[in-house]
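Quarterly update from the structural biology core.
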Amino acid sequence: MRQLPLYPPVSIRGKIVRSLGEAAYELRQYAIEQRDDEARRLVHAIRDIRTVFDAEIAEGRLRAWLIATDNEHAPGTKRAPGTKSVA
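Predicted structure, tokenized:
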């Protein structure tokens, strides 16, 4: 798999990840440590990328997984202390 860039980069296991290849590696380590089957399936989806469309789907699934697992490193979920959501 090519090292397709992630923009913006994400953080997995406390490490800044800038490509889907790096994300697959960090997710695999996370899946092993946490025994997380969903993360393991996501690793396979990333490693099976064949087209640009596959890459877009995998990146979307990665970002959704980060948010859905309430991962402390999910992009866009941290707020400054004392701020309120405008939603």
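Residues 52-68 form the longest helix (17 residues).
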